[in-house]
Amino acid sequence: MKLPVRAQLAYASGNFGKSLLWTSLEYFLLFYLTDLAGISPSVAGIMIMSSLAWDGFINPFVGYWLDRRASMGKDYRPFLRWAPPFAAILFVGIFIEPGGGEAFTTAYLFLILFAFRTAYALLDVPHNGLLALLPVDLRTRTNLAGSRYFFSSLAGLLIATVAAPLVVQGNAVQAMTELRTLAIIAGVILCMTMWQSLRPARLGQAER
Which end of the chain has fewer CB atoms at under 10 Å, N or C? Predict the structure, then answer.
């Protein structure tokens, strides 16, 4: 069994959706926490650092879980199906002001950042790992890796050239509106692109 070119592109396009979310956080999170949410730079830095540390900590455990499932003949499709909408909802939630004072806002953002990083790991690790399971030869696998990088770079370029100027140059109310709109659009695109990997995942499982 070989993987059709259309299915290969469908799989690689998942990196576009993933990169929209990841790059948006790289560009906007510190600005959002300090300038819009009113959190001190030191606390904001701790929040970002600890959530990234959590992401690095949880990824090996997700990979181990996936390997255990694979050893029992189970594939990655449940993760690719359900983790994207959860990640999208949590991503939008980051940019929704909860109210209730600075302490409550800080606690809310701290928890939702950790929840988002967890949901993102549950979609990112299986999507990355799927590359090793697809029924393609080494040359095609290398091309797929390059295609994924292309889609990631395209999403980063889109955020840098289009979204960032709109958000950062506006006033606080406008910036919040732009961020929420961006988060919703990015979340929808994440689900649409990640769900494109369901068929390649099924073909890869059938090949195994």
Answer: N
